[in-house]
Specification:
Layout lengths: L30 H11 L5 E4 L6 H13 L17 E5 L3 H15 L6 E4 L8 H6 L2 E4 L1 H14 L8 E6 L10 H15 L13 E6 L5 H7 L7 E3 L8 E9 L5 H19 L5 E5 L2 H17 L10 H12 L4 H7 L3 E4 L5 H13 L4 E5 L12 E5 L2 E4 L4 E4 L2 H8 L10 E9 L3 H9 L12 H10 L6 H9 L2 H8 L12 H21 L3 E3 L6 E3 L1 H8 L4 H8 L7 H9 L14 H9 L23 H13 L8 H28 L2 H16 L17 H9 L5 H6 L2 H8 L5 H8 L7 E11 L2 E10 L11 E8 L4 E9 L7 E8 L4 E11 L7 E9 L4 E4 L28 H6 L9 E4 L5 H5 L6 E2 L19 H9 L13 H11 L73 E5 L5 E5 L8 E4 L12 E4 L8 E2 L37 H4 L13 E6 L6 E6 L1 H7 L5 H10 L13 H7 L1
Parallel strand pairs: 1-6, 1-7, 2-4, 2-5, 3-4, 5-6, 8-15, 9-11, 9-12, 10-11, 12-15
Antiparallel strand pairs: 13-14, 16-17, 18-19, 19-22, 20-21, 20-23, 23-24, 25-26, 25-27, 28-29, 30-31, 31-32, 33-34
Helix pairs in contact: 1-2, 5-6, 8-9, 9-11, 10-11, 15-18, 15-19, 16-18, 19-24, 21-24, 22-23, 23-24, 24-25, 28-29
């Protein structure tokens, strides 16, 4: 214990620099303050001070603040503040204490220019700029923890580096369940201060000052806060300015807590007569009604004694009280005041509260019964303090709970008035079994333990989300920064560790606790670790748990929830949540709950049912009780009027709304359409305590209660539309209210979000996806107001249960009309139901829902080869020649796993309707028709030039009538098509070695999601192809269809394509950097029916060359690609008939090479007489016309069609349909 200084050695306020002296309204510091003065103001060491209440600890905080501000003093002692550069954080256990200190310090420090900011649940009107400019931030542990959890996303953690001083009031709060939040935020500040990037910031040398009531293990807190011995100050009761006498009385329990508190009223008068001795007394009651009843009981007892009233000392006092009572607006308070007794609570008007406070301070009012809020509010000291019951009714939990220790000490701190009394008395009335707890508390014998372990997983997740903890080593360091680490070594049995465990083994167990918590987070997908389980990365579910301050058990229920949850399923999740586990099913409640579940009037939306679907006759679990309470509340007119059940109902709605909002964001992240929409609806319903189909929707407007809503409903006014259409006078007539009530209700309608309409329009089918335009139009004018209304715009597919688009909009501010384009996958011969929803936040009954059905039909079939479940390309062909419409296909995961091949992309064969049944029977085994959704791109084969590609796409995306979608292919339509498409073609000249029957076919490349393909070693015959690494999977090929399939690996790996069968094709590829040359070479075996293909891809500055060699029955095809960002797909179909004349390869086999250049340049094609090849080089259109003679394409194609079938060699010509289906 710190030694007492000589009373004559008191420090003067004049010892401070002149700018700081006006902060204090006295000349000398007291003994406690004088002893701590030097350490507080002339050093920067951390401090922990333990002293009784009322001993002047707040002055120590102010001295430390001035020490920090002294950095802004110039050498001539002028104060020049730089706002926001050095921040002080004040953390108190309650909002009332924060607000009290805010008023006090605004008065004292305001003249110095200090900007104080309150950061509590009562004050949400601050932004990043306000935090940045603040010099002193006053907050509670939970709010500071919550704010810093949001800070990573909102950018609010930037001020952490400016924190130089942390003031912790009532640090013994660590022993309460709420103490875990305080421990977590202090540990977070300690962790951040040790980071390397904070070395040059004020946070690196942050100073901690903690004060508390008398506690026995102050050294443990000092060790946690790294306070040196000179910074640890312990003072006893001798430092209290007024000596206190404490008494704790125990009473036998009653049937319930409510009756126990009421029974204590009969003992208050005797206690006051014995200990108050005619002096002022404060009687703390747990509820407003309890304070009022206690005051009435005491005043009636005093009035019954007449002139012997112990609460009336003189006739002058009586006259003052009688005159004051005439100005009192509350009749019950007026009746009590004239007898010397009053009550004070939040239910009184401000005028009456001020009146009561003034009478008590003057001494005219001797007894004041009040609630516990007065303990932190106005400074009303008294000689005697009586705490009537140590329990209070917790509105959130719906039951009686013990006061927090800090609250009891604050009440006790009101005892003793230094200017008037030299002694004080504290009386605590409690149950017999808790007497020893409060005796230890008042005597300073209660050890302060850590409460972090039960909720360590939640706080550890919060640190990982904020990136404070990025790996296992930092997680262990975080544990070592906590108060838990200090106490688990001192009292291991309290934390599940055997006493006497060796120190090294104890360290391992502490590390094991940390690792165990991390494994739990990983198991449920809240965080991610690397393969060595060392690095830690937050995932979206973990971020949501930290953001919404949920418990881990509740988050596990959300993660395990189905993607197709109904409203009832989501409500059951809330009923099982850990936030409301305190609600219990009492025996006397079962009859009421059973009657509600019977629901003869059909009020409830959901009921408690058995496995067979019938309603339960008896409620058996607390989850059943919670489910019924929520349903009864959401009707808008609950049957339950019991006070206890009403309090539980309010807690269910407040906690349930927070959980539902977390589920909303989680299901949006998972893109689960049904669950997301239902979560939004449930969150709004719990917020307003109304289902969206409730007949009492008008209760959402301020000023309309259930009575008014019922009256309006009887007149047919039960929603906002009918209310807007109703006349103001009719509203007044129906509700029985006077003018201008109707006008007032009409004005309240302006606070609602504007009316918005949704329009869905089909913009066409392109690349296998339907383009849908969703337009929002504001139908009513947006009224300027301070309140911003938000809404969620969601577009989803009903069949797939997938969210296709989501955006959060401000209903008054978006540009109307506002349109978005959504690409909707549409399978063939099926329909897709598209839903667009606009869900308003905070309101129910205003949501807009629209449905749009998309149907696509086709006459051609698309067959799909083997593949895996990935984004797949779509194939698009010109609508004019009616090959196939664009489609969107998705491969199911289960089917893809059973049909996996080494190819990383799907290859699709387009079949004509005229394919015979025999040909279909000969198709590849394992191929299947399109029946799923995905994104697939099919390369189109046409006779368009490269620069016309954009026009063709625009034309193909325009929807055409169904009857014009497919046309029969005749010779006339074929020539019309060729004439139309060949107007801008470069003219061609035949070489001497080239027969006119050869048909130059242009393979148009489309962008796909794959780059190149390779071939594997085992798929090659003897032909000298470069070996590959991986084993091939052998796809099966139809006699009439030859498929290219491929596997996409990393850029450095080789890619493989193989097609074994009757006409084996050998294809290999290598993908190098864009500056290196990628070579693709196929060498066919020495058989006459094999295809040879070679392609070379060079860098953009080099030319691309393609050559093919053709045997008697072989077709050569090659393509060049210059742009490295483009990807090529090759689709080859073996012709049914051979289009080439018979002859030797030297005479008739064409070699083809092509280069794709920019769209603005033309191509030039020629046949060389010296070499049997078909070459293409870049040149302008003028050069083409000048260098080559015209080539009649019409005669050329007619010649092909007139060719008879040559049965001698088995060769065949392409018939008309085959030619253009191949095109």
């Amino acid at each position: 214990m710190g030694s007492l200084v000589d009373p004559y050695a008191l420090r003067c306020v004049s010892d401070l620099p002149p700018p700081f002296r006006p902060v204090f309204g006295f000349r000398y510091f007291n003994s406690l303050q004088s002893e701590c003065f030097h350490v507080c103001f002339f050093s920067d060491v951390n401090m922990v001070i333990s002293a009784p209440t009322g001993s002047g600890k707040t002055v120590l905080f102010e001295l430390c603040i001035l020490r920090l501000l002294s950095r802004f003093l110039s050498p001539d002692l002028r104060f020049n503040l730089v706002k926001g550069t050095l921040k002080t954080i004040y953390i108190a256990p309650s909002k009332a204490l924060v607000q009290e200190k805010l008023r006090d310090w605004n008065t004292k420090l305001g003249p110095l220019g200090i900007n104080c900011l309150e950061m509590t649940g009562d004050n949400e009107f601050y932004n990043n700029k306000a935090i940045h400019d603040a010099d002193l931030i006053l907050t509670t542990p939970e709010k500071f923890d919550s704010m810093s959890r949001h800070g990573v996303r909102d950018g609010r953690l930037g001020f952490f580096s400016d924190i130089a001083l942390v003031l912790i009031d009532e640090v013994h709060l660590l022993n309460d369940p709420r103490g875990a939040a305080l421990e977590a935020v202090i540990s977070r500040i300690k962790m951040l201060s040790r980071q390397g990037n904070m070395k040059s910031s004020p946070l690196a040398n942050v100073r901690f000052i903690a004060v508390s009531a008398t506690i026995p293990n102050i050294e443990d807190i000092a060790e946690w806060l790294l306070a040196p011995p000179e910074g640890v100050k312990r003072f006893g009761e001798e430092m209290r300015p007024v000596k206190l006498t404490t008494k704790v009385f125990g009473y036998a329990p009653a049937k319930n807590d409510f009756l126990f508190e009421r029974r204590l009223q009969s003992f208050i008068y005797d206690i006051l007569m014995q200990h108050s001795r005619g002096k002022s007394a404060l009687v703390f009651c747990s509820t407003r009604k309890g304070a009022q009843e206690a005051a009435q009981c005491l005043s009636q007892t005093g009035a019954s004694l007449g002139y012997s009233n112990p609460f009336m000392q003189s006739m002058q006092q009586y006259e003052h009280l009688r005159e004051a009572s005439l100005t009192c607006s509350d009749k019950q308070l007026q009746a009590c005041i004239v007898h010397g007794v009053g009550f004070h609570n939040g239910g009184l008007c401000l005028k009456d509260r001020n009146l009561v406070e003034g009478l008590f301070l003057k001494g005219d009012l001797q007894i004041l019964c009040t609630t516990n809020t007065l303990a932190h509010g106005v400074n009303l000291p008294a000689h005697t303090v009586v705490i009537k019951s140590t329990q209070f009714f917790n509105k959130e939990k719906g039951l009686y709970v013990e006061y927090e220790r800090s609250m009891v000490l604050q009440m006790c701190g009101r005892a003793g008035r230094p200017p008037f009394d030299d002694t004080g008395t504290i009386i605590i009335m409690t149950r017999r079994e808790t007497v020893h707890l409060y005796e230890n508390l008042l005597n300073g014998c209660e050890m302060v333990e850590s409460q972090l372990l039960p909720c360590a997983v939640e706080h550890l997740n919060a640190e990982i989300v904020q990136l404070t903890v990025a790996d296992i080593s930092l997680a262990i360091e975080w544990i070592k920064c906590s108060y838990l680490y200090i106490r688990i070594k001192k009292n291991p049995e309290n934390y599940g560790v055997k006493r006497g465990t060796p120190r090294d083994l104890l360290e391992k167990q502490i590390q094991g606790i940390c690792v165990e918590k991390i494994h739990e987070l990983v198991e449920y997908g809240l965080i991610l670790t690397d393969e060595y389980a060392f690095l830690l990365q937050p995932l979206e579910p973990g971020k949501l748990m930290a953001k919404f301050y949920l418990k881990f058990d509740t988050m596990k229920l959300i993660v395990k929830a189905s993607a197709c949850c109904s409203l009832e399923d989501l409500l059951h999740i809330i009923c099982h949540s850990a936030e409301i586990t305190w609600i219990q099913l009492r025996r006397n409640e079962k009859k009421v709950l059973n009657d509600i579940n019977t629901d003869k009037d059909g009020r409830l939306l959901f009921h408690i049912v058995m496995e067979n679907g019938k309603r339960k006759k008896r409620v058996q679990t607390r989850e059943d009780k919670i489910f019924l309470l929520a349903n009864d509340c959401l009707t808008g007119d609950p049957l339950i009027h019991d006070l206890s059940l009403n309090q539980e109902m309010n807690s269910i709605c407040s906690n349930g709304c927070r959980i539902a909002r977390c589920m909303r964001e989680y299901f949006i992240y998972k893109k689960s359409y049904r669950s997301a929409i239902n979560s939004m609806i449930l969150a709004n319903s719990l917020h307003q305590k109304l289902w969206e189909r409730s007949p009492f929707l008008l209760k959402q407007l301020p000023g309309i209660g259930i009575v008014t809503a019922k009256a309006l409903k009887s007149a047919g006014i039960c929603d906002f539309d009918t209310l807007a259409a109703a006349d103001a006078r009719k509203i007044e007539s129906v509700t029985g209210r006077n003018y201008p009530f109707g006008n007032h209700i009409k004005e309240l309608m302006s606070s609602l979000p504007p009316k918005i309409d949704i329009h869905i329009e089909d913009a066409g089918n392109r690349l296998g996806k339907s383009t849908i335009t969703v337009t929002l139009t504001r139908l009513s004018q947006a009224i300027q107001s301070n309140k911003r209304n938000f809404a969620d715009m969601v577009v989803g597919s009903e069949e797939d249960n997938v969210i296709l688009f989501h955006e959060k909009i401000r209903t008054q501010e978006f540009h109307s009309p506002y349109s978005v384009k959504v690409f909707v996958p549409c399978p063939p011969n099926a329909r897709v139901t598209l839903k667009a929803d606009l869900i308003f936040e905070e309101y129910v009954g205003l949501d807009v829902h629209k449905k749009h059905i998309i149907s696509r039909e086709d006459d051609l079939h698309v067959t799909k080869a083997h593949g895996i479940d990935k984004a797949e390309p779509t194939y698009n062909l010109p609508a004019e020649i009616c090959l196939v419409s664009s489609r969107t296909i998705r491969t199911s995961r289960s089917q893809s796993r059973t049909e996996q091949s080494p190819l990383s992309k799907e290859v699709y064969v387009i079949e004509d309707d005229a394919v015979t049944a025999l040909e279909k029977a000969d198709n590849v085994q394992g191929t299947r028709k399109f029946n799923n959704l995905a994104s697939l791109e099919v390369p189109s084969f046409d006779l368009l030039s490269e620069e016309e590609y954009g026009d063709m796409q625009a034309a193909a995306s325009t929807p055409e009538p169904a009857e014009a979608e497919c046309k029969s292919a005749t010779s006339n339509t074929i020539f019309d098509h060729i004439r139309k498409k060949s107007k801008d073609f470069p003219t061609l000249v035949l070489s001497k070695s080239m027969d006119s029957s050869y048909e130059p076919l242009i393979l148009k490349k489309m962008k796909t999601s794959r780059d190149q393909f390779g071939v594997e070693q085992s798929s090659l015959h003897t032909g000298g192809v470069t070996p590959m690494d991986s084993e091939p999977a052998e796809p099966r090929v139809s006699p009439t269809n030859m498929l290219f399939t491929g596997k996409r690996n990393s850029p450095s790996e080789k890619k493989i394509m193989t097609t074994p069968g009757e006409s084996p094709l050998r294809f290999s590829g290598e993908n190098d950097s864009p500056l290196e040359k990628s070579k693709i070479l196929i060498n066919a075996p020495a058989e006459n029916s094999h295809l040879q293909l070679a392609a070379k891809r060079s860098s953009p500055s080099e030319k691309s060359k393609m050559t093919t060699t053709l045997d008697e029955c072989s077709l050569g095809l090659a393509g060049g690609k210059d742009r490295p960002l483009e990807k090529s797909n090759i689709l080859i179909r073996t012709p049914v008939e051979n289009p080439f004349e018979k002859g030797t390869p030297a005479e008739n086999s064409p070699q083809f090479a092509a280069k794709r250049d920019s769209p603005s340049e033309k191509r030039k094609f020629s046949f060389s007489s010296s070499l049997p090849c078909f070459q293409a080089e870049q040149c302008t259109k003028q050069e083409v016309r000048a260098a080559y003679q015209p080539f009649n394409i019409e005669e050329y194609v007619k010649d092909i069609l007139r060719k008879p079938k040559d049965s001698e060699n088995g060769d065949s010509f392409l018939n008309c349909r085959s030619v253009f289906s191949f095109l």
